[in-house]
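Pipeline run #58 for the internal structure catalog. This entry was flagged by the ingest filter as a single-chain record with no existing model, so it goes straight to prediction. Upstream metadata was stripped on purpose; only the residue string is passed forward. Reviewer on rotation: M.T. Logging verbosity set to normal.
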Amino acid sequence: MADIELNVGGTIFLTTFQTLSKIQETRLSSLKKDITVQNCPTKFFFDRNPEIFNSILDLYRSGELHFPSNFCGATIRNELEFWEIDKKYVSECCLASLYRHDDDIEILKEIKNLQNGKSLDIPKEECREGCWRDCLWKVLQYPATSRKASVFNIVYLLMVLVSTTVLFLNTKQDLREPKTAVNNQTGLDPKTDMYAHTSVPWTLWVIDVTCGVFFTLEFFIRAIVTPRNCRQFLCSASNIADAIVIVSFWIFHSLMHIGSNQMDSKSFTLLLMIFAFLRLLQLCRFYRFLNRFQSFDVINLAARASFSQCSILIVVFTLTNLFFGYLVYYVEFFERNSFDNAFVGIWWAAVTMTTVGYGDVVPTWYPGRIVAIFCALTGIIILAMPVAIVTSNFTVYYTKLKQYSSHKLTDKDKSVNESKMKIKRNSICKSIAPMPVLTVKSA
């Protein structure tokens, strides 16, 4: 017969002191010390969660601690701390319920940091409310603050699209026009010959320069009106990319204007192509628009969370690539016109493992083809792993971000409703005024 009655949150549990003494140095095992009268029914009341206590009491009965999967890890930890039970008693099958709380908190912390980075909160020491520089900064940097900012945001997006389109149209030979003064140069490759003997149409040049002037002025205006110090502004990744694009733009056009007759010099052509390549960084300007969408946030967070695992897989892929590249070189050692050196084998292994298969170098002997089969299968297995990791992280972050956004939206709607009710109550109170009462006394 039970000799102890435990009332936990209104639910009665009957057990014995012998059962509770199975696990020492816990709150329940020390209850017997508090009893002054022996051999009498004993009752204790604890204002705790009865559903979790049912699992805790089973620990004393069976020696195994299991929890329902629908309970939060924080609640489980609080109950374990109250009942003075060590976490080592938790069964391995229930560890996911216990430690899922830590993963969720870490994910929510990353989401909050990302959302706070997009907010309009300016440090108090840099706050310049009412200043024209502050208004201009908000127009240039935060499209959601006003109608002017939204209009400028649309204009900026159109300029980025036009500038990118012109950048690619400049490489199309059919649209370029021959120069009036052409010096016949020999020994030039077709692409260098195109830049040396042709020029972009006047309309494209005007559009390109107009976009360059627009982005240059926009960058310097932001640098002037920014509430941050100069070092913080220039250390931003987007601003660094902007500065590189602007400098490359003007140097590229200057070299094309004053040095078109020096295309026969490989060093000059190489320098020109470097600045032409750096102009491609203007695609980073689209980040200012993609950064406002939650889907892009999910991709960004999933990529960060998968970085360590993907880095290990890249190392494994590299080592496997080196292995098969070196192996196929010696397997095809006696075959002519096949794998002149191990570096060609590494190139072949990379193309085979990624299932691209250019076919420029292939094994011709049967042992080499067997190596190719194992190389292709290994590449498929290795490259399938990061896809699963990124997909899993994407799903987790998408779910958490959606829940966080819904929660914040609910709080915002609640605050708005409370403000409306407060205004309504104030208006009702102000509309009620005391009426004058006329008292007539009889003579």
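catalog note: Confidence is low (pLDDT under 50) at residues 120-126, 427-443.
catalog note: The two ends are 90 Å apart (CA to CA).
status: ready for reviewer M.T.
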